[in-house]
Amino acid sequence: MNDSSANSAIELFDKEGFLRDLDDWNEKLAIQIARQCNIDLNDSHWQIVRLLREFYAAHQLSPANRALVALVKRELGPEKGNSAYLLSLFKNPDNNKESPAKLASKIAGLPKPDNCL
């Protein structure tokens, strides 16, 4: 990677790793973001990522953790709509401070949820 492509890649993201421009998101980029967080995306991850993107398209809002749990429970059922399930999917072993909502939003190319540190 030359310096200009490295700089353009850096400019895609803010200091916390969230995309600056939501229009730059694609599934290939989501895979790269997830890998940087030590996550290999599978169908269960994609289900949550797509649900988050649909929610954002409708409300222009990235849900915080409690709201994400409620959304997943309502849309995908109680077996998936709980904190333990989401944490099993979206946990970065290198950063225990990132909530599932924050990490899933990052992978989905969405802004950081309000109330997420």
The CATH superfamily label reads DsrC protein, C-terminal domain
**Treating each run of at least 4 consecutive H or I residues as one helix, how many helices?**
6
Query: Which overall shape is indicated by the principal axes computed on the Cα atoms?
Result: globular
CATH architect. name? Orthogonal Bundle
Which CATH class applies here?
Answer: Mainly Alpha
Q: Supply the helix-strand structural class.
A: mainly alpha
Question: How widely separated are the two ends?
Answer: 32 Å
* Overall domain count: 1
Would you list the SSEs in sequence order as H and E? Answer: HHHHHH
Profile the largest sheet. none
Helix content: 40-55%
**Proportion of β residues?**
under 5%
Number of strands: 0
pLDDT < 50 runs, ≥5 residues: 1-7
CATH fold field value: Arc Repressor Mutant, subunit A
Average pLDDT works out at 90
Gyration radius from CA atoms, angstroms: 14 Å
Topology, element by element:
Blueprint: H1 3-11, H2 27-36, H3 43-59, H4 65-76, H5 83-89, H6 100-107
Describe this structure in words.
The chain is mainly α and 117 residues long. The chain has a single domain, classed as DsrC protein, C-terminal domain (Arc Repressor Mutant, subunit A). The protein has six helices and no strands. The longest helix is centred in the middle third of the chain and has 17 residues. The chain is globular. The termini are far apart. The N terminus is likely disordered.
